[in-house]
Amino acid sequence: MSGAMPTRWAILIDLDGTLVDSAPDIAAAANRMLAELGAPPLPTGTVRGFIGNGVAALVRRVLAATSCSRDTDPELALAVFHRHYTDCNGRHGTPYAGVLHGLATLRSLGYRLACVTNKPRAYTLPLLEMTGLSSHFNVVVCGDSTPAMKPDPAPLLSACRRLGAQAGECAMVGDSEVDVAAARAAGMPVYIVRHGYHGEAGLAALRCDAVIDSFNELPGLLCHARRPDVMASPGQETSIQAIMRGAGG
Q: Is the pLDDT score of 155 beyond 50?
């Protein structure tokens, strides 16, 4: 970082699609649920597009994509999904390439890290342990840790308080529109990973401050973080990465 002091020293990071490719586990649980309800399975790619707004929203979208949507009690389906996901969680999902090294680098540089996810605590903590991610985080805020989930800013602001930081000293890293919306509402910049679950509109539709290929890009970006109300256009990505390289990040 060439001796530059970071303007933001705490980083909030999403889980599904940002740290871990958990779609195989989630799709397996969803298809076990559908089989139990007498419906055909969905492709993993289809289920991947439903991830990001919490378990209840995912189950509703899975049901809507199948023939059993009209005849099935969504609360019953949710209970069935929870039962199967308890068994599937962490079986197939793995951290994305470079994530573990990137987190270790950020910690060694003095950044405090929080995992902020819409996934319930009962699934989040075991997944972080199974994937070797748990020890990197000072704070974990789950989908049932606050009264509202992302895109509400409450989980991000809770993480800030628990880290002993102001929102203006933090940045968000995620992969979806809910991460962008929550960060904007909380008043902090947001960086989107190129991998992950970007939603139906795709990566280009996410109005973030920068798209990153590696967590190792973050120190340089955070040294030059702009005001959170100034959003990058797709054409600005290369120039931001050039700034990062010039900072020695």
A: yes
